[in-house]
Design brief:
333 residues, Jelly Rolls, 3 domains, 7-stranded antiparallel sheet, 6-stranded antiparallel sheet, 21 strands, globular, Cupin_1, RmlC_Cupin_sf, Cupin type-1 domain-containing protein, Seed_Storage-Functional
Length: 333
């Protein structure tokens, strides 16, 4: 055996830790043990060990200084549809967890599926991706203690660890080309189930209608439509939702033909970026393909053209070149 990662395991600020960022503890030709220490940004950090064993190897007897959870997949699921399944195990289902402050959950999303938006009122969720890749969309709650919070979209893949703080609404989505499986821990003394925001199980169904009308600033008819979804499922088909949530990334190159320097300018665009191009600008876009992606993502850009003082023929705004020279000026071969 060889061991030691060069000191104590460093704390990751989260919300994700990639598989290749795990801290090596012990390794040999028969396997390895690595660790992650991830922070939820509030209540401290959480320590996880990963044991990888090669075929025909033996993990020698060890003395545990903490509780250990072993998960074996079975056919008993709380929710099961053609779009995936999920299971939650707490002290209510398993006596050996009665003196602990955590529960265990596993979610398996089929290709092009989504787990309905939900949140955990008193539970921090820490999860590990077991198979595939997906997108975790996390929304900041509207509470005073979260004034500095920002909404986030996390792209994760097999071996990654991610954490979602309590009271943060979230939705998990799989890509169209593969299933997305993850398991995790719900860390809290209260054994509460997630609160869903859609369907028959939605928490909105339990609130007073007059309060909802005032909160959403809508009338009776609109509220009826909001609450009319009678689906009890919490896993839905959602083709291309993960792809659209990512939106791709790209490079924008442009030249302003009115300026004398004719200097080519470039900027890398990520999801959510906003950019402005002035009149008399020639530009092109390139879709960036990141190395870790199984398949390229579409680069989607939405353009807004304010009213122009100049009336263009046939309302042509993009592609209104005055000459071929303006189109090719300054670009490479």
């Amino acid at each position: 055996l060889r061991g030691g990662g060069g000191g104590p395991v460093p704390v990751s600020d989260g919300p994700t830790v990639r598989k290749d960022e795990r801290w090596p503890l012990v390794w040999s030709e028969f396997g390895e043990i690595s660790a992650v220490k991830i922070s939820d940004g509030k209540n401290g950090c959480y320590y996880l060990h990963f044991i990888t064993m090669n075929p025909g190897s033996l993990f020698l007897p060890v003395y545990l200084h903490s509780e250990m959870v072993l998960y074996v997949n079975s056919e008993g699921h709380d929710v099961e549809t053609c779009f995936g399944w999920s299971v939650i195990v707490t002290s209510k289902e398993l006596d050996v967890l009665k003196d602990t402050n955590f529960g265990v959950f596993v979610v398996n999303l089929a290709k092009g599926s989504m787990m309905a938006p939900h949140f955990s009122p008193n539970t921090i969720e820490i999860a590990i991706v077991l198979h595939g890749q997906g997108v975790i969309e996390v929304v900041c709650p509207g509470i005073a203690s979260e004034t500095g919070c920002k909404n986030s979209r996390l792209r994760v893949e097999e071996g990654d660890v991610f954490v979602v703080p309590r009271e943060h609404p979230m939705a998990q989505m799989s890509f169209n080309n593969d299933s997305f499986v993850f398991m995790g821990l719900m860390l809290n003394e209260k054994k509460e189930s997630p609160q869903y925001l859609a369907g028959k199980l939605s928490i909105l169904q339990r609130l007073d209608r007059k309060v909802l009308e005032k909160s959403f600033n809508v009338g009776n008819t609109t509220l009826d439509w909001i609450l009319s979804n009678e689906k009890e499922d919490i896993i839905y088909e959602c083709v291309s939702c993960a792809e659209e949530a990512q939106g791709g990334s790209g490079t924008l190159s442009w030249i302003n033909v009115e300026k004398d320097d004719d200097k080519l300018q470039q900027v890398v665009l990520k999801h959510g970026d906003i950019f402005r191009l002035s009149t008399q600008t020639v530009f092109y876009l390139q879709n960036n393909v990141e190395a870790y992606q199984y398949q390229p993502q579409n680069l989607q850009i939405y353009a807004i053209f304010p009213g122009s003082e100049v009336q263009l023929q046939n309302d042509l705004i993009v592609g209104a070149y005055t000459a071929v020279h303006d189109l090719v000026l300054g670009f490479d071969n």
